[in-house]
Each structure stands twice: as structure tokens, then as C-alpha cells.
Amino acid sequence: MQQLEWQGIALRASHVRKLSREIWELRPEYDGIEYCFYFGIVGSVVVYVHAVVKKQQKANRNDIDLAERRFEEWKAVQREQHERP
């Protein structure tokens, strides 16, 4: 995650890739275990919305759908907070 902070989405494709219009995946490995963090980006803010232990190379559609829903929910909350007087 530090590499994402330092390099942004310019990380190598083996570490980060875009999965849908707004969802990206970060795939770090630690102690021989590969993880998958799903996130969205708003301006310069990275919003982590889901994480799993990676068991297969291909991204799971259910995980992507869940990440998309959570990111939309987060954006809705942000809009509500900014609309309040």
C-alpha cells in the first residue's frame, strides 16, 4: 500500500490494475500470501472498499460487484455530508 501511495496507479500491472470504470485492484504479497485490495479513487483520495486473500489469478465478479456497491455508498455519504448546512 505504501507503493501505491508513493507511485500512484503507475505501479506495475502485476501489482495494480483497473477492473471496472471506477474500481481498481492492488495485489501485494506478504509472507507468500497474495492479497487483493479493491479501491476507488476520488481526486487524490484512495478509498479501500474490499479486501480478500487471493486464491486465483482472475478477479472474482462477486468481489468486484461488492466493491462497486461499497464505493457508490461511500460517494453517496460524502455527497450527503457536503450538502448539509
Q: Can you describe what's shown?
A:
- The protein is α+β, with helices and mostly antiparallel strands and 85 residues long.
- The protein has one domain (2-83).
- The protein is 34% helix and 32% strand.
- It has helices at 2-7, 61-83; strands at residues 16-18, 24-26, 29-30, 33-42, 45-53.
- Strands 1, 2, 3, 4 and 5 form a five-stranded antiparallel sheet that branches.
- Strand 3 (29-30) and strand 4 (33-42) form a beta hairpin.
- The protein is elongated and about 50 Å long.
- The relative contact order is 0.16.
- The mean pLDDT is 84.
Summarize the structure.
This protein is α+β, with helices and mostly antiparallel strands and 85 residues long.
Helix count from the secondary structure assignment:
2
Apparent shape: elongated
Question: What characterizes the major β-sheet?
Answer: 5 strands, antiparallel
Mean pLDDT figure: 84
Terminal Cα span: 35 Å
Q: How many structural units, i.e. domains? A: 1
Q: Could you give the count of β-strands? A: 5
Rg (CA only):
14 Å
Structural class: alpha+beta
What's the SSE blueprint?
Layout: H1 2-7, E1 16-18, E2 24-26, E3 29-30, E4 33-42, E5 45-53, H2 61-83
Antiparallel strand pairs: 1-2, 2-4, 3-4, 4-5
What descriptive keywords fit this protein?
elongated; 32% strand; 85 residues; alpha+beta
